[in-house]
């Protein structure tokens, strides 16, 4: 199989030769292409999509298959279904259901692993975000083992707050297992953040969100994470969670190589406005695309899709098309250790691609996404 398109770095047309599910050669194409080709987009934080909620033990597998297809229409070939803070029973049940989906669905390999966000987060209003307070608890290796058992070993990313005493041994244990550890929904001070990084944390989850509305202007957990070169930062670039100027500043502080686009999408993404579920929570998608808890009106995930995220990154931060696609491909792959996806259209890498064009207004229009067998 040969897939061709313009390389976002050079604008030159390339033909990518594929065999056995990986890239064999990349060579100049005989004919000039109009569309672009990039590695398939990766989203490391998806709670649900197209009306399908991953935070339930009983979500039918054919519905999960449909949501994978719907994400592919937005350019995403690989994603990490994300299970958030809930009762132990619900979290384990959701992970079991996802593990079954990964094992049995034809498209199961679109889920290289699972993201567990919580329940080991800050109990405080603000940093806790929309996560239910009654289920927030301290990190434990015993509970980590239970998550992995339920997930058939597929938990590859965990978001926690290092403000809990005893967080570091749990971080060390997960890092030893090759699980990426992210700091998020945190009220941690400088020392706790530095200790977490020393213990093996490598990512800040949706930096700038899951935070107090007001923080001390200099000495705060956002600045300390922005300044930490060891941490990747994932960002929700929907124009709702973060203002454009903040996205620009964060990208410059981190550098393009250490930033990641995530959607943090919830079930109503790609759906009409209305009431939906996120695990045990009730959320509403409003006509302006905000997703809020129906009781407290806090933001509860997004209705963003990655095609909009890539376009917004260019518009908000002035990054090139190539850099915008790095934020959704090689960077998340490096952050979570997805080895076969860390090179940008390089031989030996997994053959998944996103084919898209740029409309004159700068919007990214996905034509198709391919996950070659
Ligand atoms: Zn979150």
In short:
The protein is α/β, with parallel strands linked by helices and 373 residues long. Helix content is 27%, strand content 27%. The protein has an eight-stranded parallel sheet with strand order 5-8-9-10-11-12-13-14, with helices on both faces.
Note the main attributes of this structure:
373 residues; alpha/beta; TIM Barrel; eight-stranded parallel β-sheet; four-stranded antiparallel β-sheet; 10 helices; globular; binds zinc ion
Characterise the protein shown here.
The protein is of the alpha/beta class. The chain has one domain: Metal-dependent hydrolases (TIM Barrel, Alpha-Beta Barrel). The chain has helices at 61-72, 88-104, 141-150, 167-176, 190-199, 221-226, 244-254, 306-317, 321-326, 330-336; strands at 2-6, 13-19, 22-28, 36-39, 41-46, 48-49, 52-53, 76-84, 114-117, 155-160, 180-183, 201-204, 232-236, 259-262, 274-278, 281-285, 290-293, 299-302, 352-358, 364-371. The chain has an eight-stranded parallel β-sheet with strand order 5-8-9-10-11-12-13-14, sandwiched between helices. Strands 15-16-17-18 form a four-stranded antiparallel β-sheet, with no helix packed on it. The chain has a three-stranded antiparallel β-sheet with strand order 1-2-3, with no helix packed on it. It is globular, with a radius of gyration of 19 Å. The protein starts with a strand and ends with a strand. Bound molecules: zinc ion (ZN). Zinc ion binds at residues 117, 129, 184-185, 206, 210. Zinc ion (ZN) is lined by residues 117, 129, 184-185, 206, 210.
């Amino acid at each position: 199989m040969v897939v061709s398109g313009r390389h976002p770095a050079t604008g030159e047309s390339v033909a990518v030769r594929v065999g056995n599910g990986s890239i064999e050669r990349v060579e100049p194409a005989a004919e000039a292409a109009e569309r672009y080709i990039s590695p398939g987009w990766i989203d490391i934080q998806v709670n649900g999509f197209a009306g399908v909620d991953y935070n339930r033990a009983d979500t039918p597998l054919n519905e999960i298959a449909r949501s994978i297809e719907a994400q592919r229409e937005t350019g995403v070939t690989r994603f990490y279904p994300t299970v958030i803070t809930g009762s132990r029973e619900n979290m384990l049940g959701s992970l079991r259901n996802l593990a079954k989906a990964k094992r049995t669905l034809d498209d199961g390999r679109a889920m290289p692993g699972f993201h567990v966000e919580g329940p080991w987060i800050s109990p405080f209003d603000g940093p806790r975000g929309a996560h239910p307070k009654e289920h927030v608890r301290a990190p434990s290796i015993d509970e980590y083992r239970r998550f992995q058992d339920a997930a058939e070993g597929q938990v590859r990313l965990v978001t926690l707050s290092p403000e809990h005493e005893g967080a570091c041994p749990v971080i060390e244990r997960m890092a030893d297992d090759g699980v990426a550890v992210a700091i998020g929904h945190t009220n941690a001070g400088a020392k706790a953040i530095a200790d977490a990084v020393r213990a093996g944390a490598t990512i800040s989850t949706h930096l700038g969100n899951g935070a107090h509305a007001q923080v001390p202007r200099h000495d705060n957990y956002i600045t300390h994470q922005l300044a930490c070169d060891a941490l990747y930062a994932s960002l929700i670039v929907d124009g709702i969670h973060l203002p454009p100027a903040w996205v620009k500043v964060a990208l410059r502080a981190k550098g393009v190589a250490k930033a990641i686009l995530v959607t943090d999408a919830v079930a109503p993404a790609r759906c009409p406005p209305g009431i939906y579920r996120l695990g045990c929570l009730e959320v509403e998608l409003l006509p302006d695309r905000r997703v809020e808890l129906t009781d407290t009106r806090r933001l509860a995930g997004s209705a963003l899709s990655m095609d909009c995220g890539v376009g917004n990154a260019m518009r908000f931060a002035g990054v090139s098309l190539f850099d915008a696609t790095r934020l959704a491909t090689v960077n998340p792959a490096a952050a979570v250790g997805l080895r076969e996806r860390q090179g940008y259209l390089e031989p030996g890498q997994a053959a998944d691609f996103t084919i898209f064009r740029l409309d004159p207004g700068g919007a990214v229009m996905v034509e198709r996404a391919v996950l070659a067998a």
